[in-house]
Amino acid sequence: MPQKHEKYERLIARCKALAPTPTAVAHPCDEGSLQGAVDAAKAGLIAPILVGPAARIREVAAKAGLDISAYPIVEAAFSQESAAKAVELVRAGKVEALMKGSLHTDELMGAVVRRDTGLRTARRVSHCFIMDVPGHPDPLIITDAAVNIAPTLRDKVDIVQNAIDLAHDLGLAEVRVAILSAMETVNPDVPSTIEAAALCKMADRRQITGAVLDGPLALDNAISLEAAHIKKIDSPVAGRANVLVVPDLEAGNMLAKSLSFLAGADAAGIVLGARVPIILTSRADSLITRLASCAVAALVAAARSKSGGKAIR
Fold first, then answer.
1. The domain that contains 59 carries what CATH number?
2. pLDDT grade, residue 242 (50/70/90)?
3. 58 Cβ neighbours under 8 A, 6+ residues apart
């Protein structure tokens, strides 16, 4: 029987051949965020540069019994400055990933998307959960449950492409994308079904590449072959999806948390579409989830480096 976390452990194991990814950790001013950075460094996943008030970071480390003497600290007086200086390290080419510390997500992302000094690319920034669901054979990517509140069809093109690129970076041999709605038929009264159909046609026209898309699909016939057969859906995606694209943030958030709290899944998080991958962890995350988030970022950064920085993740 598959062991809990085996999918995350496989991701972490894939990083053993990689050098630690230089990572700016923005405002690690509580025990959880600082511990996460130290643990990831000890596991060889990241080479952290701690960005924040040095005295406070050292005080947190002393209270938690953490040795941070090997890690550089960039002084920043408050959380917004920490975010700005972490972004500056990326722009200066000193780091290849960002990691959220104890500041609010919107503070970090505000610095990332700032037009003149941020990390924007031609792609829209989007979030992916990489779910380790007990009993499910592969990691399950869910997007977007944290950044884009009510994405338009134009937004969803980038959201889908970001997730596809991530799936390839994680080593998935075949990427099967289900565009979710409440039903599996196109209904003019349900906008998400129209957008799902449009995204699939865009994939046919190679406006979205690297995966097989199908939609609209309801959740049951996206991940259950039995449900797909009952509904007589003949598709290479139905029942076998490994990427789930939700209609909006609320749906994605509820889906991810339902899997976490009802099915015992873990949810590693990453933001894509900026110049570098951004590790988003929660204070409630377990150690293995924090390490998995860092492993995902390391694999994305390595793929980007291998392509000479041309691939926009």
1. 3.40.50.10950
2. very high
3. 68, 73
Do 99 and 135 sit in the same domain of this protein?
no
Partnered with residue 279 across adjacent β-strands are: 99, 270
One domain for residues 109 and 240: no
Do the domain assignments include residue 294? Answer: no
> Which of 156, 175, 154 has its CA nearest to residue 164?
175
Structural domain for 108, as ranges: 1-120
Q: Which two tokens stand for residue 43?
A: 């596991």
Asked if 98 and 29 touch (Cβ cutoff 8 Å), the reply is no
Predicted local confidence at residue 307, as pLDDT: 67
- Cα 147 to Cα 193, 200, 259, distances in angstroms: 21, 23, 19
- How many whole angstroms separate alpha carbon 242 and alpha carbon 228? 15
Number of folded domains in the chain? 2
Q: What percent of the chain has pLDDT over 70?
A: 96
Max alpha carbon distance in the chain (Å)? Answer: 63
Compute the distance between CA of residue 170 and CA of residue 150 in angstroms, rounded to an integer.
27
Q: What pLDDT score does 138 carry? A: 83
